[in-house]
Design a protein that fits this description.
single chain, mainly beta, Green Fluorescent Protein, Laminin, eleven-stranded mixed beta barrel, 7% helix, 6-blade_b-propeller_TolB-like, cell adhesion
Length: 1247
């Protein structure tokens, strides 16, 4: 599905930019990280700790956007600039040719991932984020060596008094609205942006410092430029609006340099003198400068809008998404909705009827134009027979092909000596495993082993550390991250980029006539590598087993490291030089070797140069008949450059990035087609198709649609609702879809058709077992056709034959009593003259509880026992025990009691009626009995919500409520249920009750409610389940604390008990190890998060909140949403990025909130209803009002299946003795608060 950032930007290439931020978003989602990157030379990257959210929203076709903007074909005029000059309240920069003015900002500007409270206005057409260097260091250079926003940077001059540079800070409503209009027009599919502050800088009639030596001939006197920069900011976000009036742009060069526009972060603090990310709007040509006034990315010629920073996490500069119409054109073609065509992009200087364009010497900015569409290969997943759909992209054709089973997207090809699998057009691989052309690829796995660092005598052990990798295949960029690496070894592992660099070889950018690893051998192979370090001779062995592609389309790998590595001092960074490797291919074997050089940058600014030798062998099972593979060169060279490594001590993450190309051992052409260099500007989900010379086209990959520059996921499930057939559920995925059988159905032997599950017969229920008779044995069903026979208490045997135990042989009665053996039991009877129960006998008669109770009520007086008028007097049977039926004479009511005289709930009758009460000598039935208060849930997913005295459910069908099938799942008379949570593993519902108070649970398959926590509670409200660690979390708004317990309540621990006032909603993210909660403290409401062990607590939101009641988290999109009864809004944010946006406003009084797919569901006190909100449409789409109109409280989703994901506590309780509480990088072993004498061991991390 299509992914999105805080804003759903479809990043298009401007100038020499070739990197789409959509790549970054998908990379971050796969890695729980954030990436920022630059192009045009080198790039850098950084990882955060969060998951990037996804959104299944649809984009408007480009032609619709263009049609709506047809009124904007004229360029901006000088009069349409933001107000400037003395009358607007501006200050003026001193006159001169290189003047700088520092400004202290009232509201900080966010640039990349930093926030700046001072900026520097300069004559030379830019704003610095730090004090500018001398102009000799930056004129003609882009990027600059310091933080810069270049509106139009050049050698400018205002010393003649005619030119001026005006600037001001402005928060007036009119100006902020003008800025918002430009931003919202540029990003039409994003949330509406409302800036809270702005900086306006205007260069008015500025001249070149010296006469231009370039341009359209000699410079006439009086040639001037006027342009404007507006930096509009929110609390944690900033935008740059650049305005270039056509008639006021009169020169493009100063001195001997072409002027430049763009953004530069400056020097990267992580890589010493390495250039940090930058973004060029123009290139080195004057044509690109002229285009600033002629083109746009915001729907208005001459106006350019960019998102330039988000705090604290940032991906990449995001350009506006509305390129405008070609000059003097109002004619539009309306493509069909399901067109499998893509536009080709003519050169901006000269149109080419071949549908391709020649790359000029310096790439110009790309303008999206209405062009002729030409039929190409369909950009959808091809299904040979829609009645024969495979569930998994990587399922196999049933036929055998030379001993191989071909991929669904492969076919069996005949060669002279036999048959082999080959991928179909539009896919690549070895035929057994095929992936679509152009789709970014991911690799997941575990790293284990033992490594000795330097002279240490103690090895460092690894145990299932996570490895994640991501490759943008259409330009060969690979990213790798390994988690939970302790600092003692993390810094020293920096030189070993080859641990994850194998995926770079597997998906390297292919030069003509050469193939990357996956194209030749697929994803199943073994790799053995040996690293020998110089000059110390330390050796490390890397063993990797690649297991193919899993159901999530990720390549799987297990890695083991064994050996010794030289020490890299802690705090040092490593710079790896570009290198090449020669791969030699033979039957089922590939070998390679290289020498790697790297530089260690120490904290004292000194450096050390080192190297190591690297040798590897790759073994695989190929098809010996494949003539296509045999025709490939037997030697190929992998070229690796732009290698960056970093160890993050705080996150304990090891990160690598590199660019990979596979080609000729003798090098390549000096001028290559952009498809082979990666500098093509195609979308990350697109294929670059080379043409003649430097010509190429961009084509969206299978499963995506668009023009190749911007590709959006095709939602096959929405477009063809019955694509999966009957009794199946369609789940859209990026570039494809998957079919799953509904609850109660399973795939038939063909792997495609969903057939009803033949539920196993319970032999115990129908009596076909061979256990002894029920009076002596119990039959216990354990699933399938299996059962266990066990003898009842009082009997002995194997369950199939049971004999009575004569308990009287072991005298258990009182010495003054006689023992009588009975089947399965025995009785004791006191001897004559003695009184008692046979276990205790005495000469004095002991009254029973009932007799004592009766006497206490009747009392004693001079005229004998007499009851108080109107008081209930119990009746006792002949043995002095409570009569099973008790009656109140004056009230005329009767009821049943248990052996202790306690009333049995629900048995009281009115005058003239008598209940049926079982005798106390009737044995209780053995085994569970259905509770009449519980209605088992039918198969499928459901919405559960709490109402006074009961929990109800509404079945889900896709995104819709099946309201006519809503029922009560659980009757809880006289209870006030506040929060509810569902355990997807055991199909149980948990709830908090403030009337008792208590925390309870019940199986929704049938079973009695059970209290798990009854003590030390005051007002338990929010509740959440960790289905992986098997724990339950809750908030108590009177005790002001957050606690955790095991699901049965046997262990319990207070996690947080400070700085809480009214905590209510709480939820868990077990896969990533977080808990989230809301505190509706009226004086200071807030939403917070922490690790699941209660550590690393931080506030996510506190401003603009009222009464945040409901809270929900979608693990698929990493989106945290809340419903606020004070502000009457629903808002969402990505917890790891801090970005926040409003989803809905004007709601009434929300209480609980949950999510399922694209929809949010909340309970509303005022409306007495469950309300459905479509997150993508940002509007209410349905509601359900139960028959009993009372206040609705908690709400949750009971999914048919547990969400995918694991954590360190999923297996063997994480090795913990008691509590295993997940954290982002591992787990914490914690003891219950009452762990005295339990032998509990507390541990951190994964040791």
């Amino acid at each position: 599905m299509a992914l999105s950032h805080t804003h759903t930007h479809t990043h298009k290439k401007i100038g020499s930019e070739t990197h789409s931020a959509l790549l970054v978003k998908r990379f971050k989602r796969a890695f729980s990280s954030s990436v920022s990157q630059r192009v045009s030379g080198s790039f850098s990257f950084s990882f955060g700790s969060g998951l990037e959210m996804g959104r299944q929203g649809q984009r408007w076709p480009v032609w619709i956007l263009l049609l709506g903007l047809s009124v904007c074909v004229s360029g901006i005029t000088r009069e349409e600039l933001f107000p400037f000059g003395r009358n607007a309240g501006d200050r003026a920069l001193d006159e001169g040719s290189d003047e700088t003015q520092e400004i202290s900002l009232q509201k900080p500007v966010t640039f990349y991932s930093g926030q700046f409270s001072q900026i520097y206005i300069n004559t030379n057409g830019f704003v610095g984020l730090e004090k500018p260097a001398g102009e000799s260091e930056y004129l003609g250079n882009m990027p600059a060596g310091f933080g810069m926003i270049a509106a139009l940077q050049g050698d400018l001059d205002t010393s003649d008094g005619e030119g001026k540079v005006f600037f001001r800070q402005d928060s007036s409503p009119a100006l902020l609205q003008q800025a918002a209009d430009h931003i919202n027009r540029a990003f039409p599919e994003d949330d509406v942006v409302n800036p809270i502050s702005a900086v306006v800088v205007t260069w008015v009639d500025v001249a070149s410092h010296r006469a231009e030596s370039r341009g359209d001939g000699p410079e006439p006197s009086g040639r001037r430029n006027t342009f404007q920069l507006v930096i509009a900011s929110l609390e944690t976000q900033s935008y740059a609006i650049l305005l270039y009036p056509r008639e006021a742009m009169q020169f493009q060069s100063t001195s001997s340099y072409t002027m430049h526009a763009g953004f530069s972060k400056g020097q990267d603090k992580y890589f010493s003198s390495k250039q940090a990310p930058y973004y060029r709007i123009t290139d080195d040509t004057e044509a690109s400068v002229r285009n600033l006034a002629e083109q746009t990315n915001s729907g208005k010629r001459g106006v350019w809008v960019y998102e330039i920073g988000t705090f604290p996490h940032f991906t990449d500069i995001a350009p506006g998404e509305v390129p405008e119409l070609p000059l003097d054109s109002h004619q539009f073609q309306t493509p069909r909705k399901h067109s499998h065509q893509h536009p080709v992009y003519p050169d901006v200087q000269q149109e080419n009827l071949d549908g391709v364009y020649d790359r000029p010497e310096h790439p110009p900015p790309i303008q999206v134009q209405t062009v002729q569409y030409r039929p190409e290969r369909p950009a959808v997943v091809e299904i040979e027979n829609e009645d024969n759909i495979e569930v998994d992209v990587f399922t196999y054709n049933s036929g055998d092909c030379g001993g191989q089973k071909c991929s669904k997207f492969g076919e069996c090809s005949s060669f002279q000596s036999g048959r082999c699998c080959q991928c179909k057009p539009g896919y690549y691989g070895n035929g057994v495993q095929c992936v679509p052309d152009g789709i970014p690829q991911r690799m997941n796995g575990k790293v284990s082993g033992r490594v000795v660092v330097g002279n240490s005598q103690v090895p460092v052990d690894f145990a299932s550390n996570d490895l994640h990798s991501y490759v943008v295949v259409n330009d060969g960029r690979a990213y790798v991250a390994i988690s939970a690496i302790p600092p003692i070894v993390g810094f020293s592992l920096q030189p070993l980029s080859s641990v994850g660099g194998i995926i770079g070889w597997a998906f390297a950018l292919q030069q003509p006539g050469f193939k990357n690893g996956f194209s030749i051998i697929g994803g199943v192979f073994r790799r053995q590598a040996e690293v020998t370090f110089q000059p110390g001779g330390e050796r490390l062995t890397i063993s990797q087993e690649f297991k193919g592609i899993d159901e999530h389309d990720h390549l799987m790998v297990d890695t083991r490291l064994e050996g010794k590595i030289p020490e890299v001092p802690q705090g040092a960074t490593v710079q790896i030089e570009p290198y090449t490797e020669i791969y030699q291919y033979s039957t089922n074997l590939i070998t390679a070797s290289s020498t790697r050089e790297y530089v260690i940058n120490l904290q004292d600014q000194s450096t050390q140069s080192r190297s190591f030798k690297f040798r590897e062998t790759i073994t695989f099972e190929g098809c010996q008949h494949d003539e296509v593979v045999r025709a490939l060169p037997s030697t190929q060279m992998l070229s690796v450059d732009q290698v960056f490594v970093m160890y993050d001590r705080g996150e304990e993450l090891l990160r690598y990035a590199m660019t990979n190309k596979i080609g000729d051992v003798n090098g390549g052409q000096t001028e290559e087609n952009p498809c082979f260099t990666g500098r093509h500007g195609c979308d990350t989900n697109a294929v670059c198709r080379p043409g003649q010379g430097n010509q190429f086209t961009c084509e969206c990959a299978a499963g995506f649609t668009g023009d190749g520059r911007a590709c959006n996921d095709i939602d096959e499930c929405r477009e063809t609702p019955q694509i999966c057939g009957p009794n199946a559920i369609c789940n859209n995925q990026p570039g494809t879809f998957r079919c799953e059988c509904q609850e109660g159905f399973q795939f038939a032997s063909d792997g495609q058709t969903c057939v009803e599950v033949q539920r196993p017969v319970d032999p115990c229920r129908i009596g076909t077992h061979d256990c002894d008779v029920p009076e002596r044995a119990r039959c216990s069903y354990i699933g399938g056709s299996s059962y266990i026979c066990t003898c009842l208490p009082g009997f002995m045997g194997d369950g199939r034959s049971c004999q009575d135990i004569n308990e009287c042989q072991v005298n258990q009665c009182h010495e003054n009593a006689v023992c009588f053996n009975t089947p399965g039991s025995f009785t004791c009877q006191c001897n004559p003259g003695f009184y008692g129960d046979g276990f205790h006998c005495s000469t004095e008669y002991e009254k029973t509880r009932c007799q004592l109770h009766r006497e206490s009520v009747l009392g004693a007086g001079p005229r004998g026992p007499r009851p108080v008028p109107g008081q209930y007097v119990p009746t006792c049977d002949a043995q002095g025990e409570y009569d099973p039926m008790q009656c109140h004479a004056s009230a005329g009511q009767c009821w049943c009691v248990d052996r202790n005289g306690l009333e049995i709930s629900g048995t009281r009758t009115g005058p003239g009626r008598f209940p049926e009460c079982p005798g106390h000598d009737v044995p209780r039935p053995i085994g569970p009995t259905p509770d009449p208060n519980i209605s088992p849930l039918p198969p499928g997913s459901h919405i559960l919500f709490a109402q006074s005295g009961k929990i109800e459910y509404i079945p889900l069908e896709g995104h819709n409520l099946k309201k006519n099938e809503a029922k009560t799942a659980l009757h809880l008379p006289e209870k006030v249920v506040i929060g509810i949570a569902y355990d997807c593993v055991e199909k149980m519902v948990y709830w908090t009750d403030i009337s008792t108070p208590a925390i309870s649970r019940a199986s929704l398959q049938g079973g009695e409610p059970v209290h798990i926590i009854k003590s030390d509670l005051s007002s338990p409200e929010g509740i959440a389940i960790d289905h992986l660690g098997r724990n339950v979390f809750w908030t108590d708004s009177m005790k002001d604390r957050i606690e955790v317990s095991s699901l049965d309540g046997s262990q319990r621990r207070v996690l947080i008990n400070t700085d809480l006032v009214n905590p209510r909603a709480i939820l868990t993210d077990p896969t990533n190890g977080y808990i989230y909660w809301a505190d509706w403290n009226r004086d200071a409401p807030k939403i917070e998060m922490a690790y699941m062990d209660g550590t690393n607590r931080r506030v996510l939101a506190k401003d603009g909140l009222g009464l945040p009641n409901g809270l929900t988290y979608d693990p698929q999109t990493s989106l945290l949403c809340w419903a606020d009864a004070g502000t009457h809004k629903v808002e969402c944010m990505n917890p790891q990025q801090g970005s926040r946006r409003q989803l809905m406003e004007g709601i009434r009084y929300p209480f609980g909130l949950t999510t399922d797919g694209r929809n949010l569901y909340y309970t509303d006190w005022t409306r007495g209803a469950v309300v459905v909100v479509d997150r993508h449409a940002r509007r209410e789409v349905d509601e359900f009002q139960p028959q009993k109109r009372t206040r609705l409280y908690g709400i949750t989703t009971a999914h048919a299946h547990c969400p995918s994901g694991q954590n360190y506590c999923s297996s063997n309780n994480g090795g913990c003795t008691h509590f295993c509480l997940a954290t982002p990088a591992g787990r914490s072993c914690r003891c219950p608060d009452n762990a005295v004498g339990l032998g509990c061991v507390e541990r951190e991390g994964w040791n």
